[in-house]
Every structure is written in structure tokens, then in C-alpha cells.
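Notes continue from the previous slide.

Worked example: a multi-chain complex. Inputs as given:
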Amino acid sequence: MIRVLTLLAALAVATPALAQRELTVVAGGGQLQDHMRRTLFETFTRATGVPVRDSSYDYNVGPIRAMVQARNVTWDVVLVEAPDLIRGCEDGIFERIDWSVVNRAKFLGGGAETCGAGAIGWGVSVFRDLNRNPTGPSNWQEFWDTQRFPGRRTLRRGARMTLEIALMGDGVPAAEVYRVLATPAGQQRAFAALDRIRPSLHFWTGGQQPLELVNAGEVAFAVGFVGRTANAIRGGARLDLNWDTLLFSYDYWAVVRGSPNAANGMRLIEHMTNPAPLRALTELWPINPVTAEVANDPAVRARNPLMMSNHQDRGLRIDTEFWLDQGPDLEQRFAAWLNR
Amino acid sequence: MAETLPRTRAALAAWDGRDLPPEAAFAALADELAAALEERRIGDVSQRLNFEQPGMRALLLRTARAAPRLAAPYAQTLPALDARWSEAETWKLIRRAGGPTTSLYLLRAVDMTRTPDGEIRAVAPDQAVFVTLFLRTLWVSLIVTVACVVLGWPVAAAIAALRPPWSSAALLLVLVPFWSSVMVRSTAWFALLQREGPINDALLLLGLADAPLQLVGTRFAVLLATIHVLLPVAILPMVGVMTRLDRRHLQAAASLGASPWLAFRRVWLPLSLPGVAAGGAMTFLLAVGFYITPALVGGERDQLVAWFIAQFLNRDVNWGMSAALSVYLLAMAGAVIALLRVLTGGVTPAGVRA
């Protein structure tokens, strides 16, 4: 008991020191973050003298909300997905970006949001194992054609992206997808399209699963994150990555509201989205920059033919606003459909 | 909600619910929405209402953004901005959502909802998911529990019958998988069960199957992997009870003329029941909360309640729904454990010290 009390007392003494903790940046972890540390975080410390600590999370924003509500903010700069950013901004979970510190003009369209600065793009598209399936669907309508291309297909478990894909599989042009999906008839059409090829469908939950399923021959065709597919190809896997089936979005850097290091956080965001450190990052890892100068740099593009920036004009940008409005309803209907 | 729109709520309290609310409600709403947007606390109310009625978030944000430009009488300018403000249903929704407590999440967690008039009814069939989910969770957990106890009992009895150096070695064989990660064991089952995995290879080689069987993504795979993962949890309490049983009871039974089978049935089995109850209860409690294993080896129709709780908690940040689902799950687990206590006739897990 006394030992516990001593421990508590020690913690109480240690707490004020936490208030002056180092600037903490949190991203998705893995190898990408190791490269970010060298090219983005450490160069910031070298340029400004401000030490940066980095940590990783699994893109679940629940904990960020909890720390803001508890007024015990231990993360400063976070890499977040678009819907989480917009919702978090409305709810006051993230600070508004200080555009006098961060240069707003340097981003691609959609890269500068009220509370977030575009960090990296991500997308999903169809891929297959060339050894097992020399031929395969080249667009969504062919993906839906189970006669011509028999075999199981895997999609992400969830309404977002799946319903867009279902409509395109049913022949809706990409430019029309969100207009159609906003109507009850369009939603019915998407679910009817899913019903049609349901026996051939499998749904994954983790980002590594599509590769595992294709490698194991569990499915013939998979919709998976292009970054992971591209890395597997670079690692020697004989995969065909189809860019005509690209759906993409951006991740953003945001500052957690109530962060004691907010000012330095803004400076860090400005640094991390600047061309020089980003270009250094693209040399180590084929990320998809949202900073226009790097994304459009012919040298960067030529070096990484599998970079999404090379193919983005063929893809459909996921409509964040649409999913914020319709998401709760459509996700539940999708869950009900899955269980039927 | 109550904090975001206090004056709107007050104005709506006086409304009779027919036609449209008074101008005061329109004016208060425009004013309070604009303030909530500016102070960045509109999320609470917009998410809450959008969950009940899709499209409400867009309506509220649009209204909040436009409000500073609008002028009185708001009873005309708001409907001009969006026709939904001239529908009594929209206002009833806001009035009902205004209270400090709501039954919305508890109702939705069992596929029920309220109409704008406050009537409780089932949600549309294409929305219903949670009742099936609870029944499935209960069913899967019960099968897993029974299987673990039935498979674990002989193992526990064998370990209890061994002499010291061998009993520890046997116990270690149970403990090593118990200590290894659930994730690793579930992933291993994926590797074993896949189309080109060793199980399918063996079936083809032995001629028991003509083509590889689809095992991954089936209920069978979920049950198999979950039973394997939870088996040590069932075995350990039973070993604990059985090693402390006095073997002289069996000798006494034999000396009184009981056959080995009768001695087992009338003496050994009843004495081991506290261990069975404890092992079964532990297994069941863990099984109802399982989600990694079903997510890895199961198909779409094999997901359990826990997966949805995690999804609502972490991804959708709909804490109302995750709390409601948790409450029902806890109640379900509690009810089964209570039933187990009644059925085992007071032989409670606490009776382990016997």
C-alpha cells in the first residue's frame, strides 16, 4: 500500500514535467513513418532546433476525441483521414490551420481544409496475380462480369467505396456516381448490383488482407490499397495493378485542439508539406504528395511509375462530404445487407 | 444537444406539434446554429440528428453557414433556404432529441426506432442488423463453450491423473498456446485453412475432396479457431479443481462395490463440476467478446457484436451506439451466467475451493 502511495506521489510530481513535453507527431507507423522521421521530422529539428518525438496510431480517432474531452492532450500533430478531419473540425477536435504560417497556395485542389493540410494521397484499385490470372477485368463493368472473368473478388468491408464501385460496375459513369448514390433509387441500384455478384464476393477488413488473399489464391481479383500493392510489386511480386479502377482520397496533417505546442505544430506542418523534405521522402518511399510542386515534378513521377500521382487523373476522388451525410445510414444498411 | 440549442428547445416546448412552431423557434435556431458553428460545437447536434435522420447534418451545416445572412421573419427565410424547415417532422425531431436522456441508441441497438410522433416501431428490414447479431453471438458463444468443456474435460482429467514431473510438462503444453497471442493463433488458422493450405492439400491427397474446399470465410472456420483459442481457458480451471480432488473417494466407491463406470459417473464427475462451471463460465465470457478471430477467418455472416462495438467506438465515434450494444451484451452474458448458476444447482465457480 505504501509502495502504491509512493508511486502515486512520484507520478504527481512527474506530471508538471509532462506539460512541457516535446512536440509530438503521430502518423500511421510502419516503414513509411521510419522514412518520415528521417526526411520530415529530423530535418525540422535541424532547421528550427525544436525537438520532435513521433508515435504511431491505427487511424482510430476515438482516442483523440477522448484526450481533447479530458483536456489532457498528449499528441500535437496527427495524420488523419478526410472524414475524420472534417468531422473533427466541426466538433472542435482539431485546431484551425494557421494559414499565415502554412502556405495555402502550395497544395493540390482539396489539399487545404479548414483544419488540415494535405499530407499524402491514398487510393484503392483492382489488382490480380499475373501467374494465376494472366487476364482480368480492366474496368469496373468487367469486374462485375463474373461470366467473362470467373473467380472470387474481394472488396473492403464497408459501404464507403463499395457502393461507388457497385454503381460503376452497373455502368454508372464515374462523374455521375455521387449524384446517383444520393437518390434512394441509386442506393437501391447499388445494393442490387452487389446482390447480383454476391456469391463471388468476399470482404476484407485489414489493409494487408487483399494481398494475403490474392497470394493464397483465395480470391482471383482484389480491391486493395495501391500503396501496398505497389510495394509488393517493387518487392518482386508479379501483380497487375489496374489504374482505371482507382478511387482515392487524401490524408491530412492536423493539430489536436488544446495542444500546448500548437504554434510549433503549425510550423512543423509547413515544413512537412514543403517541397524539399517531401522530395527527399519520395526518394525513399513512393508516397503520393499533395503538395503540387512535388506531385507534378516530372523527375519524381519518372522515378516512381507506380506512384498514384501518375494516375490520379484516371481515378475517382472519394466524396468526403457525401459520406459524412449519408455514411451512418448507408453503413448500417450495408451491414444489414452483409448479414442477410 | 441541450447545451447547443437551449433557446430553440424552450421555444419548441411551447409548440403544440401541429402545423409549424412559432417564429421564436425559427429565430432561436438560426441564431444558435450560427453560434455553434462559429464556436465549433455543432458536431454534437449534427451527428446526433444525422444518426436519426440521414441528411440532417447537411441541413444543419447549411443553415448554420447561411444564418448570418438571413433576416427576420425566419419562419419564411429558413423554409426558403431549405424546404425541410417547413416540415413539422424536422421540428419534432429536434424537439425530441433535445432532452437530457434518449432511448434512441438502446432502441436502435435492437433494431427499433421512434417515429417523429414518438411511436416505437421496428426499423426498415434493410436496416435491421443487431438482433441477428446478438442471437448469432449467443449461439456461437454457447457452441464454443460446450465444445471447449467437452474437449477440455478429458485433457484436464488426464493432466490431473499424471504424477508431478509429467503433470507440469502436460500443463506446460496447455499454457504455451494460452500465452501466445490470439492474433497469431487466428492467423495460423487462416494459413492452415486457405485453399492452398495444408488441410486442403491433405484432403485432396487422400482423395476426400475433388476440389479445394472453401474453408476460410465460413462459420466452421470461426468455430474451429475460436474453440482452439479458448480451449486452454476451459482446461485450466478444470485442472485446478481436479488436482485437488481426493482420489480416495474413488477407492471408497470401489470398496463399496461400485464399478469403475459407476464410480466415475456418481463420484468423480459430480466432484469435478465446479471446475466445469468455472471453465465454462470463463470460456463463455471471453467468447461473447471475441472479434479478432471472426474478423480474420470468418465471412460476412460470421461477425459478432464485439466487432461492431469496436467499430462504433473507434471508427465511427458513435459512443452512444457502442455503449448501447455493450449494455445488451453485458446483460446477455450476465443472464447466461446466472442461468448457469441455477442449472448447476448452486455449484458456483466460487466452489472451486472445495
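Summary box: The interface with chain B takes residues 60-63, 65, 87-92, 157, 191, 202-203, 205-206, 212, 216-218, 321, 324-333, 335-339 of chain A (CB under 8 Å). The longest helix of chain A spans residues 320-339.
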